[in-house]
Give the backbone structure.
Amino acid sequence: MIAIAAIIGSTGPASVHPHVFAEARLDVTVNPDQTVKSLRNLWRFDDVFSSTVLMEFDKNSDLKLDDSELEEVAQTIFSSLAEYNYFLLVTVDGKDVAMKPPAQLMANYENDQLIVLFESEPKSPLKLNGKIDFGVYDPTFYTAIDFNEDDHMAVDNMPAECARQVIRPDPDDAIAQNKSTLTEAFFNDPTGTDLSKIFATKLELTCSAKG
């Protein structure tokens, strides 16, 4: 059996460019008191990776993944991503926000593509005030998770006091803007740091205090 931990969470200089690709959707849900309720994530993986998963987890060789096989896929990916904080990026005014591990991860297989869904909540109440960024990134650079359209990063019940924009950093500009904080280790082997987040597509909310 392949180790999805090795595929999704691979590290090392040989893995500096993506080998696995996924289209993503991120929905931020907001409570009535303008705190973040949860982040709902959906990842649809590329055909090559999906077919590899099918071959390895299709125990009865019927060319599909039944419920028990999908559960094994989900548990394997769930365990693999724990070390990497489930690829979640959440910051307030540039400072990282701690997130709870998802209660579970669900996997499905539709139209020859593996689909992964999970939901995560902030560990402490996260008020929409200041500049809040949400995104997904792989610190190992092995998996590229992209939002093909801006509306694939959405906010349910966004307060009127917030302005929304999707930021897609240019890699050269991102390096130039962060050059003072990028270490030699980053340039020699970026997989050993978490600074790859500077390249991540982000949903940015700029919110003022109500009233």
Notes: Residues 10-15 have pLDDT under 50 and may be disordered. The CA atoms of residues 54 and 63 lie 7 Å apart.
